[in-house]
Design brief:
By secondary structure, the chain is of the alpha/beta class. It has 12 helices and 15 strands.
Length: 332
């Protein structure tokens, strides 16, 4: 089976692509620039961008399945940039699947597509999409997820996975951001820090994608559905942050900022950055303030039942693996 993995230059996509190669699959990806490490790992690299329908179609030619991991993440930037990457890019993947008779599509989504700016405690996939969003990333990912699930049918089987807070060795987002802000003295707990949150260790997130890919068939119970993917170990956010900091031999963060104050600061920063047309991400936004102050933990029983997902690496074991990796690689 030849599998296209979009976003293989990123954390999850790269780990997924390499694992698939190790398990004997032929893997292809699409990259804007030369990706020698991927080629050295046995991954076929096509030059191009998801926003180009022609490039996507050519890269998908001859593939049997797609894991569409690529997306524009973040909490700041023009809506057009998010729409082109997350919505138009997904449209191009879907069109390529139809054109070339590809039978399986696993889409990487996010629990933020159903975040309504309040606590989410043990919610299931029945949670509805909110009427509005505080950031362009969840807004555009929700549009894309709806398209993917709506495309499920006899000729193309689709499924959407919603991994939450992916972390582990090789992470270039959550872990390095926590470490850099802690070292700069800019890290704060928003609210009490006791809000329960789910996360998922990178190996578990990868395994969920492979399970979904192998299980996906027209008659599969997973077809046309979305699934939360976590470690199934919700813990206070402050504890998770401090566990990651401990892996980097850094002291725990104890300084706090009230949730309401963080939200107000985010609103002011968004206004100021918008007026000044700054491209860099503000230190705080309204969406980020709500995300950091609210509970986010999910019922993963549907993923266990329908795709056989069972997180093998616990948070404790993952932290130890991260600690060992950071000793050898620093915080880069």
């Amino acid at each position: 089976m030849k599998i296209m993995v979009t976003g293989a230059t990123g954390f999850l996509g790269g780990a997924l692509a390499r694992t698939l190669v190790q398990r004997g699959f032929a893997v292809r990806t699409l990259a804007r620039s030369k990706a020698s490490p991927l080629e050295e790992a046995g991954i076929e690299v096509y030059g191009g961008d998801l926003t180009s329908e022609e490039a996507v179609s050519e890269a998908l030619r001859g593939c049997d399945a797609v894991c569409h991991v690529a997306a524009k993440p973040g909490v700041w930037g023009p809506y057009k940039d998010y729409y082109n990457a997350n919505v138009k890019g997904t449209e191009h993947v879907l069109e390529g699947c139809r054109r070339h008779g590809i039978k399986k599509l696993v889409f990487t989504s996010s629990p933020s597509v159903v975040f309504s700016n309040s606590d989410q405690s043990g919610v299931t996939e029945n949670e509805p999409y909110p009427r509005s969003f505080l950031a362009h990333y969840p807004a555009t990912k929700a549009i894309a997820e709806r398209m993917v699930l709506g495309a499920h049918g006899a000729s193309l089987s689709t499924v959407s996975l919603r991994p939450h807070l992916i972390w582990g060795p090789g992470d270039r987002h959550l872990v390095p951001r926590l470490i850099s802000r802690a070292k700069a003295g800019k890290l704060r707990i928003v609210g009490t820090g006791k809000n329960l949150v789910d996360s998922v260790y990178i190996d578990n997130a990868v395994e969920a994608h492979i399970l979904a890919l192998l299980k996906l068939e027209p008659a599969s119970p997973a077809g046309g559905k979305a699934y939360f993917i976590t470690n199934g170990e919700p813990m206070p956010l402050a504890d998770l942050m401090n566990a990651i900091l401990s892996a980097a031999d850094l002291p725990p963060v104890t300084r706090k900022i009230p949730a309401g104050l963080a939200y107000a600061a985010g609103a002011l920063m968004e206004l100021g950055y918008g007026i000044l047309r700054k491209k860099e991400e503000p230190l705080m936004t309204r969406f980020l303030a709500r995300e950091l102050a609210c509970a986010h933990w999910f019922d993963i029983s549907a993923a266990r039942r329908d795709i056989g997902y069972s997180p093998a690496i616990t948070i404790r074991e993952g932290i130890e693996r991260l600690r060992e990796w950071l000793k050898n690689h620093g915080d880069n």
